[in-house]
């Protein structure tokens, strides 16, 4: 049933995005006197058709896309004054450009609606590492980051990117009713290793000296999965090295970002909305970081271990909890304790929207809401523009989804509510607009290039040559869609 809902939601979202894009082409074609034969949602045989005075509107059986069919697009049609290739090149340029521009503009308008109606979730500091640059500058847990270097900041990826440049940063933070400005000098960290061991025997110490008699950091340069013996300052630890994540040396200020609080956002199992989670087993729950560590502990089997090493010093160790785990929580001012099977507790904590966001949303008013929405959209558009080109050479594929992935994203958004659906729609429609601006055959950007060439040279391009190039581009684009679909399926099966 969930899959059906996800697919229906995806189709509705996708049709809205397509209609917005194609309406841009339609409106400017009509504005410049180009006849529009059809305005269609979907492809294939029609299931609904309404004849207009100048344009037929139709819905086709396969709702994965849409199009406007303009007079003159078919090479067999004459270049009459009311055809696409019968008008000036600059008019054709604007007709083609209008689709991507409408997509991007609607994304901006949606963010204005979202931020005006619901506000936005700012970046919040979850935890400040002792003796870090952030602590020395006076940053505290629960501080809300409003601006960085005088500009609004909306996501942790953006903020982290600025910090990792290594230059001094100025943070404007909200602490209660106060607004503070703090200057912080990022510091170069040691390389960090997140290590997952299975079939563990022995105890881990404070420092790792060697693995299989090879100095720790040297071994990690060319580590291999398999059985290992780890020598520490307090003895030996053995097990199967199953997975290692390595964070390189980087500039940091020493904070953890807050994501969600320990307060339940809705009723689930024995918990009621507003209940506060206090501990899971022996692990006290006060922050997002504590919750993530607890979920990791719940996911570990009895003979598994997960630990973080900085340089060669063990910074933190997460051990498995018992099969039956005690949970303490507060409900209506009363302390309670309940027992769960750990798999059941993981299921509860992994439910979308089960916990409140760490930071309460900020709801700006008037012009401030518009300026913040524009700033938010600008950051997103810039990130998309920088990221998307890499997918054509095999980079940034983890940041992009195909049709299957988008179905899942929209389905998850539906579970969170209408606001989240609108955010997803805004992001996708800006993505679509920018993607279509790339100067590739079959995309609007490719057609824009041909129009620009004609405007500059004042010579018409052979339409048969242009159509052949776009046809080849279309099949290459189709192949790319199939490629991304296989990647989506691989991600789905790997879960």
TrEMBL record:
InterPro entries, per the entry: PDZ, PDZ_6, PDZ_sf, Pept_M50_Zn, Peptidase_M50
Record lineage: Bacteria, Thermotogati, Thermotogota, Thermotogae, Thermotogales
Membrane topology of this protein: Multi-pass membrane protein
GO molecular-function terms, A-Z: metalloendopeptidase activity
Keywords per UniProt: Hydrolase, Membrane, Metalloprotease, Protease, Transmembrane, Transmembrane helix, Zinc
GO cellular component, one term: membrane
Biological process annotations from GO: proteolysis
Organism: Fervidobacterium gondwanense DSM 13020
Keyword Ligase: no
PANTHER family: MEMBRANE METALLOPROTEASE ARASP2, CHLOROPLASTIC-RELATED, REGULATOR OF SIGMA-E PROTEASE RSEP
Cofactor(s) annotated in UniProt: Zn(2+)
Family: Belongs to the peptidase M50B family.
Protein name (database record): Regulator of sigma E protease
Domain (PDZ): residue spans on this chain: 123-177
Domain of life: Bacteria
Classification via Gene3D superfamilies: 2.30.42.10
CDD domains: cpPDZ_EcRseP-like, S2P-M50_PDZ_RseP-like
Residue spans crossing the bilayer: 6-28, 93-121, 416-438, 468-487
One Pfam family cited in the UniProt record for this chain: Peptidase_M50
Compartments (UniProt record): Membrane
């Amino acid at each position: 049933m969930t899959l059906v809902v996800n697919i229906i939601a995806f189709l509705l979202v996708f049709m809205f995005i397509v209609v917005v894009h194609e309406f841009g082409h339609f409106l400017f074609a009509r504005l410049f006197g180009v006849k529009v034969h059809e305005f269609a949602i979907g492809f294939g045989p029609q299931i609904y058709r309404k004849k207009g005075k100048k344009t037929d509107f139709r819905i086709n059986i396969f709702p994965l896309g849409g199009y406007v069919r303009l007079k003159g697009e078919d090479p067999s049609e004459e270049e009459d004054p009311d055809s696409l290739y019968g008008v000036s090149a600059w008019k054709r340029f604007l007709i083609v450009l209008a689709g991507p521009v409408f997509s991007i503009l609607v994304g901006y308008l949606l963010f204005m609606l979202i931020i005006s109606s619901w506000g936005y979730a700012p970046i919040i500091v979850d935890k400040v590492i002792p003796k870090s640059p952030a602590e020395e500058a006076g940053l505290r847990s629960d501080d809300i980051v409003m601006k960085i270097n005088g500009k609004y900041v909306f996501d942790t990826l953006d903020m982290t990117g600025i910090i990792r440049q290594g230059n001094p940063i100025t943070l404007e933070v909200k602490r209660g009713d106060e607004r503070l400005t703090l200057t912080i000098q990022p510091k170069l960290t040691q390389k960090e290793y997140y290590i997952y061991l299975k079939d563990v025997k022995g105890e881990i110490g404070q420092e790792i000296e060697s693995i299989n008699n090879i100095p720790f950091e040297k071994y990690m340069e060319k580590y291999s999965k398999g059985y290992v013996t780890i020598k520490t300052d307090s003895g030996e630890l053995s097990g199967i090295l199953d997975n290692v994540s390595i964070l390189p040396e980087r500039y940091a200020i020493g904070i953890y970002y807050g994501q969600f609080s320990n307060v339940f956002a809705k009723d689930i199992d024995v918990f009621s909305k507003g209940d506060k989670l206090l501990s899971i087993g022996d692990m006290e729950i006060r922050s997002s970081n504590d919750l993530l560590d607890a979920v990791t502990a719940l996911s570990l089997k009895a003979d598994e271990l997960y630990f973080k090493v900085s340089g060669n010093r063990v910074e933190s160790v997460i051990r498995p909890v018992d099969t039956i785990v005690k949970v303490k929580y507060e409900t209506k001012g009363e302390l309670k304790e309940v027992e769960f099977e750990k798999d059941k507790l993981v299921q509860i904590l992994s439910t979308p929207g089960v916990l409140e966001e760490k930071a309460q949303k900020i709801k700006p008013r008037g012009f401030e809401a518009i300026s913040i929405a524009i700033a938010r959209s600008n950051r997103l558009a810039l990130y998309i523009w920088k990221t998307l080109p890499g997918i054509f050479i095999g980079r940034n594929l983890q940041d992009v989804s195909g049709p299957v992935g988008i179905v899942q994203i929209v389905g998850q958004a539906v579970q969170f509510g209408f606001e989240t659906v609108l955010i997803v729609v805004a992001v996708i429609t800006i993505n679509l607009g920018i993607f279509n601006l790339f100067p590739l055959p079959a995309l609007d950007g490719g057609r824009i290039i041909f129009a620009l060439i004609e405007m500059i040279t004042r010579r018409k391009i052979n339409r048969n040559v242009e159509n052949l190039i776009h046809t080849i581009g279309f099949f290459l684009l189709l192949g790319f869609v199939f490629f991304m679909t296989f990647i989506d399926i691989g991600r789905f099966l790997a879960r």
